[in-house]
Amino acid sequence: MKRLTCNLALAALLLPGAAVAASDAPADVAWDFVAWDFVAGLTSEVGQRLAGSEAEARGRVWAAEKLKALGFKGVVIEPASTRAYVRGTDMAKLVSPVPQLLAVTALGFSGATPEAGIEADVVYFASLADLKAVPAGSLAGKIVFLDHAMKAAQDGGGYGPYGQARREGPAVASTKGAAAIVIRSIGTDSHRNPHTGGTTFPAGIAPIPAGAISNPDADMLVWLVGKGKALRLSLTLTGKTAESLPTGNLIGDLPGRNPALPPILLACHLDSWDLGTGAVDDGAGCAIITAAALKAQSGRQTLRTIRVLMAGAEEISAAGGAAYAKAHPERHALAMESDSGADRVWRAELKFAPANAALADKVAAALAPLGIPRGKGSVEGGADIGPVIAAQKLAVIDLNQDMTRYFDLHHTPDDTLDKIDRAALAQNVDAWAAVLGVVANAAEDIAAVE
Amino acid sequence: MKRLTCNLALAALLLPGAAVAASDAPADVAWDFVAWDFVAGLTSEVGQRLAGSEAEARGRVWAAEKLKALGFKGVVIEPASTRAYVRGTDMAKLVSPVPQLLAVTALGFSGATPEAGIEADVVYFASLADLKAVPAGSLAGKIVFLDHAMKAAQDGGGYGPYGQARREGPAVASTKGAAAIVIRSIGTDSHRNPHTGGTTFPAGIAPIPAGAISNPDADMLVWLVGKGKALRLSLTLTGKTAESLPTGNLIGDLPGRNPALPPILLACHLDSWDLGTGAVDDGAGCAIITAAALKAQSGRQTLRTIRVLMAGAEEISAAGGAAYAKAHPERHALAMESDSGADRVWRAELKFAPANAALADKVAAALAPLGIPRGKGSVEGGADIGPVIAAQKLAVIDLNQDMTRYFDLHHTPDDTLDKIDRAALAQNVDAWAAVLGVVANAAEDIAAVE
Q1: Is A257 inside a domain boundary?
Q2: B23 Cβ contact list (under 8 Å, min separation 6)
Q3: Distance from the CA of A285 to the CA of which of A25, A318, B196, B266 falls in 20 to 30 A?
Q4: Are residues A76 and A112 in the same domain?
């Protein structure tokens, strides 16, 4: 295929010494190159793609051109809107016992400080439970420093419970009367890179300035607290919440031999947080589904259409996924999402109706040669496909990626291209294509899952 | 010893679950605790210690109190002065082909941009040699982006040749007429943390704004250059050079049984760059020499005095080492310096006069049980002991640390306490104490090395 030749030529340019001629390159190498070229281009030629920003819009246009060039049909951008956070100046400085600049980021939907910042004494809490336990109003005028103990795990399981410090901690601090809050970053690394992410102030709870400091900075504050030192902090977080900014979903199809059959939906999100360039979250996901869809069609056109959804505004509001479900009530067959980085698929979780047990077994059999076992847990889907799954009770397959490293990078300045392991990226493409080889060629009805 | 008991009690606090009682703790554990407590305290209770700053002065006072508490005698701060760099605002933004914020730091002695920054087209050079090859004046009004290809190595050997891009590149760019220069950070990591460090503008060459961007940012620019894109950069580096600021050396002795014998000099530097907290560069070195000196005296007082020199302003001017040599013409026996991080000692290089061949063999024999071989290369000494070595032709021992990771952290915001491996720190203390057990008890004359 012409488009493959072009990508191989590009790949040869990117890999001095690789000397891969288009004519004799193994197909497996080629699809890796398509995925790599996608995420390298998106992160380098567009960069960060904050939800609601002009950069997110540029990302949609860039990816639309890329999908067209790769042979996708019906490529369309469907506009939507999102509540969003527009970053301002982020600065935190320990004032006493010793002056130290801290690596800080505002959380999405943080309240704003004045331009000159605020300065206040700090009250330390080792956990969200400890913060919840103090009386309402008891922290008047204070800055809360909220700690937690998240650890790295293959299934990323710490993000749920420990992530509550970010999602819920600022609102809880507000109810206690705090002037502001800084949390230990929700992450498992040890670099001077803070982790941003959205927080929530429910109706009736006044937003307060809310930031996250890097783990090394948090360690240093904890050391001082352990020494009995009183901490005083200066905090400047001037970003603002915008109630409605433009976002949008990008859709492209690889038509099946029978376009009347409900399509297979593959999703990722095209927006990113703004500190890094959104390589592992979620440029890699968009690269994987794009390359895998092409690989699945490379031998013979699949029976069913494979649809790629690159959603907007996942990070801040999940508005893209909701807009897609509303705009597309037409029947889908099955949905899958890639949004856990670029490390290897280690397990598959399948959710099918009982009538499709044989099809599920075929999917598991296709993954077995890749050493990917079928799990016995539940599927999670993801924010981009959650609404359409809920609306249509879709069958779902999760290809679980190894998330041990994911929360080292998640929502940090360090989410950049160099963090992607090309061999792992290729393994993802292989795994997705193996699944598509089964489900996109399934002639049987893929039933709703009650 | 009372001071040891105190440190063990502290250590027990720091290590929940360790449950080490002072009375039954093995001595090897204790000295590790002393080293760890030193570098943890210095980095947390003082933080960054930029040469010439009030923070460096606070560091001297903190460390002087620590040495006194640990039992050092004759603890004194000897004032000196240094040429220095006072950081301002550092900001770099790719303007075209796409807007992207870059992680940047000014280099020490950089020229200053106006407060509003400058904006110019970028000219890419893959190496310093390429930059040198263009005609004088040919880069008028341009911003140079200077790349290099430094790799990690056990002996840190890339820092010499590739570090020239930082040390010499800005002056070369100035002679070519460039308006400013940004270099790929002199480092081997892949994080959004730029590496600062000093540069030099020889007399007659006008300083120009000179910064370093992180490796992921440099990768992204290289990708765009490879795509044939024209780059345009906005650069704001407002820091200023100060011709004379106060610095100082901290000295403390553990007196020997025969104080008339020339002492053994152990050195580190107490200043640091300002982006991190100076844990591996060089808080760890000061921690190692302090703990090793105490360990060497813990069984029986050594024959010779062990002197600890914690030098000032090593990073920016090496003024501390020069001031020490000038102020201390009295005869020394031997000098050693720890300034390559906190990773394991893997080799020892010894420089003794031929008359001391037997003593050198005893040093090598003391290190053999620790698995540290004697090298066949030359010694390097270091900036803090270089002047006194030159003035007195001193014998020198280098305990080479594994520097594979060192230039991941060197001069970055990421040089923080968490990067120190406690087991490796303990191995350093053991190695230094083993050497001191020989040389600080040497009754024979330790001769000058011609």
Answers
A1: yes
A2: none
A3: A25
A4: no
Closest chain B residue to the Cα of A194, Cα to Cα: B192
Q: Give yes or no: residues B209 and B180 share one domain.
A: yes
CB atoms within 10 A of CB B1: 11
Collect all residues from A whose CB is shorter than 8 A from any CB in B: 13-14, 40, 43-48, 55, 58, 97-100, 103, 190-193, 215-216, 219-220, 223-224, 226-227, 276-277, 412-414, 416-419
> Do A63 and A108 share a domain, yes or no?
no
Query: What is the share, in percent, of chain A residues with pLDDT greater than 70?
Result: 94
Same domain, B296 and B188: no
Collect all residues with Cβ–Cβ distance below 8 Å to A362 and sequence separation of at least 6: A438
Query: How far is the C-alpha of B237 from the C-alpha of B94, rounded, in Å?
Result: 15
What total number of domains does chain B contain?
A: 2
Asked if A145 and A57 sit in the same domain, the reply is no
Chain B environment of A184 (Cβ under 8 Å):
none
Q: Which of A225, A241, A257 is the last residue of a domain?
A: A241
What's the N-to-C CA distance of chain A in angstroms? 42
- Please, which pLDDT band fits residue A5 given cuts at 50, 70 and 90? very low
pLDDT in tens, B297-306: 998 999 999 9
- In the sheet that holds B264-269, the strands lie side by side as B73-86, B240-254, B306-311, B264-269, B334-337, B395-401, B345-351
Q: For A262-313, how does the pLDDT look when each residue is reduced to its tens digit (9 = 90+)?
A: 999 999 999 999 999 999 999 999 999 999 999 999 989 999 999 999 999 9
- Domain annotation covers residue B425: yes
Based on the fold, state whether residues B265 and B372 are members of the same structural domain: yes
- Encode pLDDT of A200-247 as tens digits: 999 999 999 999 999 999 999 999 999 999 999 999 999 999 999 999
Residues 6+ apart with CB under 8 A from B33: B7, B8, B10, B11
| Per-position DSSP letters for A400-438, written without gaps between them | EEP-TTHHHHTTSTT-SGGG--HHHHHHHHHHHHHHHHH
Average pLDDT of chain B is 94
Tell me the nearest-neighbour CA distance from A59 into chain B, angstroms.
Answer: 11
B24 inside domain? yes
Cβ distance of A47 and B413 shorter than 8 Å: no
Helix (H, G, I), strand (E, B) or coil at B151: coil
Q: Which helix (H) or strand (E) holds A185?
A: none
Same domain assignment for residues B274 and B238: no
Give bridge partners of residue B213 from the DSSP assignment. Answer: B104, B184
CA atoms of A273 and A251, how far apart (whole Å): 21
Last residue of a domain, one of A224, A241, A258: A241
Per CB-CB distance under 8 Å, the chain B contacts of A276 are 192
Whether B100 and A14 lie within 8 Å, measured CB to CB? no
Indicate if A132 and A250 belong to the same structural domain: no
Chain B residues in contact with A53 (beta carbon < 8 A): none
Phi-psi region of B331 (alpha: psi -120 to 50; beta: other; left: phi over 0): beta
* pTM recorded for the entire structure: 0.90
Residues 6+ away with beta carbon under 8 Å from B271 = B49, B50, B51, B56, B59, B247, B278, B311, B312, B313, B314, B315, B316, B320
Distance CA A332, CA B313 (A): 67
Between vectors from CA A259 to CA A255 and to CA A262, what angle results, nearest 5°? 105
List, edge to edge, every strand of the sheet that includes A100-102. A100-102, A90-96, A232-237, A118-125, A143-146, A180-184, A210-213, A104-106
In this complex, how many residue pairs, one in chain A and one in chain B, have their CB atoms less than 8 Å apart?
Answer: 96
pLDDT at res. A8: 41
**To which residue do tokens 């010779």 refer?**
B304
On whether residue A48 sits in a domain, the answer given is yes
Grouping H, G, I as helix, E, B as strand and the rest as coil, residue B360 is: helix
Domain membership of residue A165 as a residue range: 89-241
The CATH number given to whatever domain includes residue A142 is 3.50.30.30
A63, A77, A245, B156 from A56: Cα distances, Å? 11, 12, 11, 41
